[in-house]
Amino acid sequence: MTPTAIVHRVAPKGRGAHRSIASALRAARDGDEIHVAPGEYVEHLVIDRAVRLLPEEGTRHAVRLLAASPGRPVLEVAARDVYVEDLVLVGQDPGLPAVLVDAGHLELDGCDVSGGRVEAGGDASLALTDCRVAGAELAAVHLNTTGSARLTRVVVEDVEGTGVVVGSRATAEADELTVRRVTGSGVRVRGGARAALRECRISGPGRSGLLVEDDATVTARDCRVEETAAEGVRVLGSSARPAPPSGGAEFGEGGVVLVRCEVLRTGGDGVAVSGGGDVLMLGCRLRDGSGPGVSVEDEGRAELVDCQVDGAHGSGLVARGTARLSAEGTSVTGSRANGLLAGGRAEVRVDTGDLTACSFSAVHACDDSRVTLTACRIGSSAEHGIRATDRAGLTVEGGRISDCGLSGVRIDGAAEARMRGLSVVRGRAGITMESSGTMVLEECDVMGAERSGISCGTETAPVLRDCRISGTGTAGLVIGERATPSVEGCTVRDAAGSGVVVGPRAEPRIRAVTVARTGKNSLFVGEKARGTFEDCVFSGAGTDGAAFPALHVSTGGAPVLRGCLVRDSEEDVALEKGARPVFDDCVSRDVKNPSLPTGAEQALSAAGGPEPAGAGTTARETEAPDEDTLDDLLAELQGLAGLERVKNDVSSLVKLMQMVRRREEMGLVPPPLSRHLVFTGNPGTGKTTIARLYGRILAAVGLLERGHLVEADRSALVGEYVGHTGPKTTRVFQQARGGVLFIDEAYSLTQYAGTNDFGQEAIATLLKLMEDHRDDVVVIVAGYLKEMEVFVRSNPGLASRFNRTLLFDDYSGAELVSIVEHQAAQHQYELTPDAVTELTARFDAMPRDRGFGNGRTARQLFQAMTERQAYRVAELPEASEADVMTLRPEDIPQSL
Question: Structure pTM?
């Protein structure tokens, strides 16, 4: 009360008192106070000046103001700074305002409002502190204003409608708001309104607990919504992205932010987002909802960070339509449907999440959805750990799946899947792939499955690289009928049944696979199955005591095995009648009853005749590392010793290839350009090293799929009888698909004359393949300068395709010394300055003729120096660490 304020007293009787509050208001001026004696007053109060209206001291809630008529509010405010304290305000029509603020500002403190709502409109502002609003219809508090509102410790109850409505462009803040026993939603925010809720409780609403519509913005901290008849939180129509709250900021830029909120025992979804709705949830908990925990539909977006979804009667997380859902550090437990369900064209990302104890599959992706799981833990689901079907896309990076009722992972329909570093433990089956789509598994582990570890279904073509299968109850790897998978670098161990089972008419490509300690066969090939098995090891077949051969080939089976090893078995090979396998350079060791073909019979052709010795010579492949980046590769190129001219040529080629790639990405026709190269120079000048690096660079630019290197020479391409060369050259070329085919001493294909030489056939086959697969393989031919010039001119097809030559100069003395120093550093040796000087002089004096080995000479010299140093140090009575590590001039041999 200001010093100049006047107190106006209202009482039913007594001298000096107004008989009505309206009379006191007419006498009051701005800043005056009106004290009301206990009693009941039937009035329609219109307050158009800044006054304070309160009961006489010590008489809280002893003053009751009743509306004078059903169509009018008890209190109508049109002035700023109106303060009303501890009064009971009773309207006559629950569907109309009991308190109405059309303009100015009203503060209700400790008041009890019933029989109508509290409403603010126009540009009015409103504050309610320690108030109760009850018995209204439609809404208890309706903020339809462009002004602000603050609700502190307000109780809203027994409402036939919504508890609190925030609309228009209102800005509302609510602290410790309680909404209970309302037939509509607890709190509804719509239009362009902005609301901040802190420590609020919404209990038992007849519809949603919190309803957000249109472009409204809501931030809720430490709030609880429980016992709702519909959704706990429903967000519909927000279009902008919410900003995470930080510092003192309470509002994002549209959408809903929930911080440490609880949504419990809802009659529908815990949090439902649809339309263009947008929700960010931080540290929230959703429990025991009758529907999904969090559902996102249409164009909705939801992001969960460190949240818990427990006991949802539907799926824990659901995304449909074109929705986007992301969850980080979030757990989903005990869902009575899926842990995560993605459908439509939704995009879902889950990082470091837990999805456990679900009644259906923990993760189910269907329709055209896209799901990415990173470092997730999935366990104890009644069905699959992960299932992708229809045309869904699945990406899995790391993580663990355990104890699933069906498969740890099942991919079917036309779904696509890429999984790296995933572990699947126990469960009925490990990974089951039945899809016609692309499926790639890399570095995945499957352990302890009751049935098969990894299963490739009928007519599927998955890719498996560096996967490990162990302890399966039946087979380790199963390849279904007519399946054509590619399997490389995998291991199968301790399978109770067979290690690898190839179904009828299947044709897998299996390379560098190890199968060990199987209860039955290491490899079982079904009827009329084919396929290639290269550099595989099959050991320890029949560990359950029965006499199972390591390799079993059924009737009509015609697999090709190259460079394989069979060991530690009772029997190596068993063939059913009509089986026609091909064994090329295969070996049996420690086998009690060996029958694997040897010598001239080692390779058996499909026609039943022997293939000549040496015909099995194959090209050598070097895989490009997956983690290559263009900057790293160019740095590696510049780090090589010498080769300055070649480095400049390759750098120019890279720029040219980047331009080609950009034109292709823009939809423009690429310029006529041959990527094939001729490398000329003496041995040891780094031609193979540059070829390997060139392939990796083209892969990094996007012009090759893999960028690996396949090294071949005449023996790998040319056969020894009619009809042998074409297939042999084709096989090497196919091995290089997606990478670089490097043919050393390529001129040897044309140096032999006579009717029995098939070098020209190899060239013709190679040129045809280069034309048919011009974008799939880069061919590099290498050799001495003059011979390569003659080779390229020998055939018009060669001249048109190989029109760019890189000349590899001999290394200088200083460059060769740097190679020796690099070798020394790698092996923890050091050269003394005198040794460096001596080496430089020795290299400078060496003639650069065809017998000079360049880098190879430097490496041989380093090896010889280490041997001579070892002899010298061995004669020292007490050799120090420096003695052992140091290479001196006397360690340099006099001749090479």
Answer: 0.66
